[in-house]
Amino acid sequence: MEIVEICSNIDNEATDMFIKPRSINFTSFWSFHPHQPKTNIPFRPSKLYNRKDGGHRKWISYCVKKKALFCNICLCYGDGSGSFSKGFSVWKHVYERVSDHEETITHKLNVDAHLMKKQFSSVDSLLTHGLGSIRKIQVENNRNVLLRLIDVLKLIGKRGLSYRGKTNEAAYSLDDTSLDHGNFLEITLLISKYDSLLKSHLDKVVKKSLKCYNSGAKQGGGQVTFLSKTTINYIPEIIAKNIKFTISNEVKDAVIYSVQLDTTQDISVTDQCSIILRYVNGTSVFERLVGMVRCSSSKGSDFVELLLKVLKDMNLDPKCCIGNATYGAANMQGVYNGFSTKMSEATVEQVHVWCYAHVLNLVISDITSKIVQSISLFGILQGCAVFIRESYKRMDIWTTKNSKKKYVQSAKQDGGPKMQH
Q: 216 with 229: CB under 8 angstroms?
């Protein structure tokens, strides 16, 4: 009877080791795991307990009573939702499932949690032997890949090019060089020809994406590629936030500032408002573009709300705004509901300045439309331009004559043509 009771207690204790431990039971939990029997099991222990590179999988344990595999690290630090936390007992393709679990983000995060916990506890140092160094190398490689992609995005933004293409952005299509993948992906593929790290990353991404595509999966398999539209959107947004943060600090140092607003429509007939801050930093005057905001209304009060929101996002005090410059339309200069009037309610000290470029444009328009000599002059110039442009022969003659004229002028500025002796 005593022998039966002892065996029963051992079985109960072993079963209790396959549930999430409390903090006071960590020592006993890790002294029991990894539990890796080599007999009476439905798999080959040498193939499952060891990786292909020869490393020992210390994170995996087998429960004889439940006949299931457990990840002791995810069991200890995870939320208990994973299949290897509940007990994995599907033996078809079990070796592939074990390898897949080892590459999941959840498992890697739990490994990091275990390594952090290990620094302050007496856990067996051999438990995660090899996993920490592998994880560290992967993080370093991903960081270096991301730095290269950030440089690509900065180059595209500097040149004012479009980031994405219309089609062929899927990762499984990147190995087809006959397709146009857009500026971002094409530059990345070009760099990968001369960069082994980026080349290795792209090869792995294409292989996994192609596997998911051939299996009929609609999603990308949950893999982190750094090549998706999400990355292309996030990185410029982060760069923009950093730039705004720097501008905000400079404006705060200047104490006072003024704003300039103007609206324009892009090619998609979307009205956008450009917001510029003007301030003095040291002995220099700066004008910084801080926003291109889509406008849904042209009312002066709506422009005030739009501006105040931008200033709030940059953590700037609207009361420090001492002036604003806009064009002379009624929605900006209206006495009752214009932008300037409504802005004065929020910032009492601000002064409205009518944009001098807009004023000059209106003056020239009035002059050329009311004075007879101006109308005649610009009418003749317009007629000449149309006459020359309608014939390629006349256009060639004009270009030739104009180039010779520029040569003569440059020769006169240089002191005339030099005589050859």
A: no
Cut 0.70: pTM above it: no
What phi and psi, each to the nearest 5 degrees, are found at residue 191? -65, -35
**DSSP assigned state of 40:** S
DSSP 288: E
Round to whole Å and give the CA distance between 57 and 33: 11
Written as one string, the DSSP assignment of 355-403 is: -HHHHHHHHHHHHHHH-HHHHHHHHHHHHHHHHHHT-HHHHHHHHHHHH
Over residues 360-386, the mean pLDDT reads 86
Residue 358, judged by CB atoms within 10 A of its CB (0-12, 13-18, 19+), counts as middle
Contact 187, 150 (CB under 8 A): no
Q: What is the largest CA-CA distance in the chain?
A: 127
Lowest average pLDDT, out of 17-21, 37-41, 96-100, 279-283, goes to 17-21
Distances (CA, A) of 317 to 32, 258, 347: 61, 12, 9
Q: What is the DSSP string of 205-241?
A: HHHHHHHHHHTT-SS-TT---S-SHHHHHHHHHHHHH
